[in-house]
Design a protein that fits this description.
This protein is an alpha+beta fold and 105 residues long. It is 53% helix and 12% strand. It has four helices and four strands; from the N terminus they run ββββαααα.
Length: 105
């Protein structure tokens, strides 16, 4: 797309704006996927603390909720969430809880 003065813009379907993924079709699929990915990255960085059996479960859950969980849900109040998006977020939450408790399925 030419915007004048020899400058042009590329048309894309999905782009990142202020850390949130926006798409031309207006759904939240890309944003949810990116949020879950960011949450898991934060979880991995805190893995030693979150899975430490010497720390209380209350403290580990509080740390998870304040760090990894908040990364997953950042900007979620602006997402037009579908049932599939809710399911994706719930599955990530369950997997994180299983990892904290040391449960393998």
């Amino acid at each position: 797309m030419n915007i004048g003065d020899g400058a042009s813009l590329e048309l894309v379907d999905v782009f990142c704006y202020l850390g949130d993924m926006l798409s031309t079709d207006g759904d939240a699929d890309a944003a949810v996927e990116a949020g879950v990915h960011k949450g898991w990255n934060k979880f991995r960085r805190l893995m030693l603390l979150l899975t430490n059996k010497d720390a209380s479960l209350f403290l580990r859950r509080k740390l998870y909720r304040s760090c990894a969980h908040s990364c997953m849900l950042r900007s979620s109040e602006t997402w037009p969430v579908k049932k599939e998006n809710e399911l994706t977020l719930q599955q990530a939450e369950i997997r994180a809880g299983q990892r904290q408790l040391g449960v393998r399925l």
